[in-house]
Amino acid sequence: MVLGLVLAAGKSERMGQPKLAMYYEGEPMLRAVVRKLYDGGCDQVRIVFGHHAEILLNLLYGTDIEIVYNENPDEGMLSSIKIGIAPTRERMESLTIFAKSMHYKDGKRPTETTTWALKGPDLDKQYDAVMIQPGDIPGFTVQTVETMIAAMEDSQADAWIATCFSKRGHPLLLPTASIASVVNFEGESLRDWLRDPSRKVIEVETDDPGVLKDYDTPEDL
To answer: What is the pLDDT of residues 147-157, one digit of tens each?
Structure first.
């Protein structure tokens, strides 16, 4: 079983608005990423929220997602990855705080959308791997997700990473055996973890330029 993990906690400062709510090929960017992960073979999708969480949740009505909340998203993407790949019962307290802030914001009653959306991780469910995908890289194809999962099934590694034109991009696939190492890693980014020469990282070459393109400014759209 493969868990799709979408990183959606960023502030979107350069875009000037919540970029994952902006439309990409006819649907909100975040919703497109979730759909492609499911269509490509992920068994469950989990999203790490932070900034703009309530706005983004309301875009996902009707989708089967688990949510995790990063109380300190400005600590960087690695902080969201760690929370997302290894949620603990202690970290679930952050989700409870987030839920209360949504339900009682400005004294309003819970809405149908927010009540639906507040589904935390199933801590008892076991996955073979986690596919990590930033929410602002929506252009990857369903076939790329399928190719990544097939590569994992045909080889052994500490990680698999999608490439195009020999350049590394996303998604990134981590087997369960690598999760503890990432969670305990004290470097600044997952890129630093991947650079460790002791780790076997398989680059999965695709013909998909969408694995390289992130969207940070209005000009990128």
So the answer is: 999 999 999 99
> What pTM was computed for the model?
0.87
Peptide bond into 197 cis (omega under 30): no
Which residue, 41, 39, 16, 52, is CA-closest to 135?
52
Question: What is the DSSP annotation of 35-65?
Answer: HHHHHHT-SEEEEEEBTBHHHHHGGGTT--E
Instruction: Give, rounded to a whole angstrom, the gap between the first and last alpha carbons of the chain.
Output: 33
Q: 211: how many CB neighbours lie within 10 A of its CB? A: 26
- Phi-psi sector, 71: left (phi>0), alpha (psi -120 to 50), beta: alpha
Strand 65-69 versus strand 159-164 pairing type: unpaired
- Neighbouring CB atoms inside 10 A of 168's CB total 16
Q: Between β-strands 65-69 and 44-49, what pairing exists: parallel, antiparallel or unpaired?
A: parallel
Residue 50 β-bridge partners? 52
Token representation of residue 160: 């698999």
DSSP 13: T
Q: How far apart are CA 119 and CA 169, in angstroms?
A: 29
Rg, the chain, Cα only = 17
